[in-house]
Amino acid sequence: MNRSRIIGFAAAAALLGFLALAVYNIFEINPRTRRLPPSREGRVNEYLALDRWLEYSGIGLRTESSAGISDISGAGEKQIFIQASLFRWTDEAVKYLVSWIEDGGHLFLVLDYYGDPSRDHFWEWHKEGPMLLLELFGIEANMGRPVPAYYHESDAPSFDRRVSFSFKDTVNEQALVLTDHSGETRFVQIRPGQGKLTLSGRPLFLFSPNLERAPNARLAWAIFAEQEDGAWFFVRGLARVQGIFGSLFRQGNMTVLVISVLLLLFVSFWAVIPVFGLVKGDDEKPQRPLRERFLAEGRFLKSHGALDFYRAAYIREIKRRLGRKEGLNTDEEIEKRIFELLGRPVAAPSPQAYFQKMVIDYKTILERI
Q1: Distance between CA atoms of 358 and 346, rounded to whole angstroms?
Q2: H or E stretch including 141?
Q3: Which helix (H) or strand (E) holds 198?
Q4: Pairing of β 79-83 and β 176-179
């Protein structure tokens, strides 16, 4: 191997080693956390993280947008999650749920109603449904506005501060009662008969942004992963991404839309389609062929004795090309080269007979250069 190449390679390796050492000692790599916005599916389904966690854990789940007593009685799951505003409450439904819980079912009831507690119909309407169910188990739900100043406990689950619970009698020892820092009961789980009843307000601890907190994850695990037969039936509403047509059919007036589209099409066609009949325009006379115009120009120059004008134009172009391509500058060299290209002298300009012959000769020379 050449000695100079070995020296160059060693110098380059030493330089790269020095640069690597300098970069290692001078610069510092710091990891940077980049927060990505939630996906569209995550924005419309606040339980998306819970659904994926249950599927990953092998816990079956089925979701419906609404349900009634027929859906509950025909369900094969032993655990049911009901969002109170989406259930069709009747006296038969309440009686069935009570007996179903006592026979070994697990009902997770979410009180998600909101309103003004000062209005009478607010309380009367609630007593017709889930409130009657709670009264049969000796529990009373208090629903109102949250306290403005609220201290957040980092080691407590995320509860709904609009809903609290109280017991009419002594609390059973098997009941699980979770309170916040103010002493209000926000989460209740009792065991009537062989089953279980779980109560809460809006389950904020199950929402996707909150499940990453350890207190919320532990409470969710205690609720959903305790049973051996862990299949759940959720009545909480289906998260569907509404497109433009879905929103239009849901909120718009289709009659007005159809009439507007038809009117717009009629006006558009009326403006685009021309009036029936022949289109009026200027009658343009066809132009004369190029050969006739060329001859007419030649006859005009001939009548004025200026046919040498064509010859001078061709000669200038021939001289320019021969000078650029072959380096010929003098008239003798150019004439000699023209004779070689054409094979004979160029016809001299003549007013009578040689005009066309001259033009043909010069065109031939230009094509051969």
Answers
A1: 7
A2: strand 139-143
A3: strand 196-200
A4: unpaired
